[in-house]
């Protein structure tokens, strides 16, 4: 059994999100060592309340559950990564930070680009600045990124790409802290993802909407995402970005599997603003700096010479794109039944 987090004081920004909750459960399971404390930092008191109830296995609770907050291994703190002072305060007495706070909905970021900049970029800068200026003795900061940061074509991806660089450069500003990142693709069954959308459309009798028949996406579960993040914590060098080696599928094949022969109309609606036909986790230019990392991951080394040795034998040649890692229909069916059986079981419900 790993002792990676044994006795550590962990902070999860944006911890009430889909990833944050699975990450928190994994930390509290003790499978990788039991932390001294796990603090969820976010600005949504309602989500914190329901997460607190869920993790204490209560349906309802009175105010004493909040007053007892500091007595539990799992703790909650209200604040915003945009606010330097509240973030700096939350990072006191912390060993490891998982930075999952983000504006991540592509259309929302297009209509409110400055808000995306403030959360995704300024939030990262606030963290690095606080650690550097206040000499906060944090061991590791993990920036949680996205495939959309690779060759970005939308505001969300652009801000996350810069966020990666802010964290990586943080190694030079606060060398006592290791700043690393984890970049991954489409997460199956997470809030707002394609599988729940398709299942809702099927349950309503259709139509099921696809933006283009050529679209492909990398597929991994939230557990796979956490595996990538934990591998980075265990083995990534300062300035490295960990990227999972994962399969991909055509969205038409995914739709066909979920429809399962029922009379559901499929409508092609056209590419949405800022959307890619194929996602990339590593660009051709980045691939020259990629090596094999721990677990099922690539490790993307920093382009800053102070943080990285030149890569003489890259782990792959050319772009790592979803259209180059496609599963056939049988492989996709087996993958979905194994990885998300509790969700895929819904496809057998009557529409």
What is the gist of this entry?
This protein is α/β, with parallel strands linked by helices and 351 residues long. The protein contains 13 helices and 15 strands. 43% of the residues are buried.
Could you characterize what this model shows?
With 351 residues, this protein is an alpha/beta fold. Helix content is 38%, strand content 18%. The chain is built from 13 helices and 15 strands. A hairpin with a 4-residue loop joins strand 13 and strand 14. It starts with 8 loop residues before the first strand and ends in a 7-residue tail after the last helix. The relative contact order is 0.11.
Low-confidence sequence ranges: 347-351
The oligomeric state is single chain
Enumerate how many helices there are, as a single number: 13
Residues in β-strands, percent = 15-25%
Taken in chain order, the helices and strands follow as EHEHHEHEHHEHEHEEHEEHEEHEEEHH
The whole-number mean of residue pLDDT values reads 90
Radius of gyration: 20 Å
Strand order of the largest sheet: 3-2-1-4-5-6-9-14-13
Helix content: 25-40%
Determine the N-to-C terminus distance: 44 Å
Main beta sheet strand tally, sense and closure: 9 strands, mixed
**E-strand count:** 15
Structural class: alpha/beta
**Apparent shape:** globular
């Amino acid at each position: 059994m790993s002792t990676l987090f044994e006795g550590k004081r962990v902070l999860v920004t944006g911890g009430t999100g889909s990833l944050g909750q699975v990450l928190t459960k994994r930390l509290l399971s003790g499978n990788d060592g039991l932390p001294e404390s796990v603090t969820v930092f976010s600005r949504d008191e309602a989500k914190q309340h329901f997460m607190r109830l869920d993790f204490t296995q209560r349906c309802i609770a009175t105010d004493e559950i909040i007053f007892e907050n500091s007595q539990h291994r799992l703790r909650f703190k209200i604040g915003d990564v945009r606010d330097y002072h509240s973030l700096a305060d939350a990072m006191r007495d912390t060993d490891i930070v998982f930075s999952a706070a983000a504006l991540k909905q592509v259309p929302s970021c297009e209509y409110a680009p400055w808000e995306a900049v403030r959360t995704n970029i300024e939030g990262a800068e606030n963290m690095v600045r606080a650690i550097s200026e206040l000499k906060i003795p944090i061991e590791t900061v993990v920036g949680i990124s996205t495939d959309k940061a690779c060759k970005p074509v939308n505001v969300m991806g652009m801000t996350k790409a810069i966020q990666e660089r802010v964290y990586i450069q943080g190694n030079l500003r606060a060398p006592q802290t290791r700043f690393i990142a984890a970049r991954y693709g489409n997460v199956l069954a997470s809030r707002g993802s394609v599988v729940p959308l398709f299942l809702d459309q099927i349950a309503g009798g259709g139509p099921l909407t696809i933006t283009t028949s050529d679209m492909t996406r990398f597929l991994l579960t939230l557990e796979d995402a956490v595996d990538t993040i934990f591998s980075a914590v265990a083995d990534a060098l300062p300035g490295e970005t960990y990227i999972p080696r994962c399969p991909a599928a055509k969205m038409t094949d995914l739709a066909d599997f979920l429809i399962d022969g029922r009379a559901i109309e499929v409508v092609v609606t056209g590419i949405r603003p800022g959307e890619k036909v194929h996602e990339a986790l590593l660009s051709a230019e980045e691939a020259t700096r990629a090596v094999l990392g721990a677990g099922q991951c690539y490790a993307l080394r920093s382009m800053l010479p102070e943080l990285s040795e030149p890569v003489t034998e890259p782990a792959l040649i050319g772009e790592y794109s979803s259209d180059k890692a496609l599963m056939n229909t049988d492989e996709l069916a087996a993958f979905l039944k194994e990885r998300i059986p509790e969700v895929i079981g819904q496809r057998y419900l009557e529409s």
